[in-house]
Amino acid sequence: MRTQSHRMSPPPANGIDYSSRPGEAAVHSRDTDTLRTLAGHPAVFTRVAVAGNPATPLDVLRMLAYDRFIPVAASVAANPNTPTGVLTTLASSRRPGVRAAVAANPSTSDLTRALLVVDTSERVRKALTNSSHTTAQLLAVLAQDTCRDVQLGALHNPNTPVSVIEQSAQGPDEYVARVASSMRRSHLSQYAHQLPEPARTHARLLIESGFLGWPRHLSTVLSPHTQTSAITRLAHQRGARAR
After folding, report:
1. Residue 126 pLDDT > 80
2. Between 20 and 30 A from 181 (CA), which of 7, 55, 190, 229?
3. Residue 76: exposure state from Cβ atoms within 10 A (0-12, 13-18, ≥19)
4. pLDDT in tens, 40-61
5. Mean pLDDT (whole number) for 178-189
6. C-alpha dist (Å) from residue 9 to 4, 45, 48, 157
7. Which of 30-44, 71-85, 200-214 has the lowest mean pLDDT?
8. Cα–Cα distance between 90 and 82 in angstroms, integer?
9. Residue 233: is its pLDDT beyond 60?
């Protein structure tokens, strides 16, 4: 007797299966009536999809923010169309995952981000460092965080001022200081590459000697009238001090 074989689909990577018809509609639908209906669906993954859908009406997002299942609230917190007032409320959630989603949301207000800078969860503070919407002032605070991963995240954020990176290069954490110093060297090398000769050669000599500074400092040393011999002598002096 022949038995019919059934192919089983692999489990979804994120633990949420959208393969059912309501789940697919919740993900792809742009019809507000459909989304309102699915917002009350008994399946959690369907409500998660509705909460993350950019076409979901604002009043529905406000309702789903209070869903008793955390993944639904987290999906609302990650939706860039969620009102800032709702995001501020979710920022006080007991769940770090929800607060981290608020920290990463581009619609979160600067005031709410300022409150999350002192969040007890490293996950939340790290989410702030990964956001291109986190201000330079907040990144300066995060660069001094007690968690190394948060410090490193702040250093790599494009909004972080060079003065903050320079300060970190002289900080107490040796690994963070090395990373910051490497970033400073990279900035200097990029700056030097854009210079005309002989300034480019002069800049490279100083950088190789362990020049401590940023492009604005380097530009004060370099001059169209500076002799190569003078730069070489200065580079040797710096190299000797570094040794």
Report:
1. yes
2. 229
3. buried
4. 999 999 999 999 999 999 999 9
5. 82
6. 16, 17, 21, 39
7. 200-214
8. 11
9. no
The amino acid at 174: E
Positive or negative torsion for Cα 143, 145, 148, 153: negative
Enumerate the domain spans of the chain.
162-243
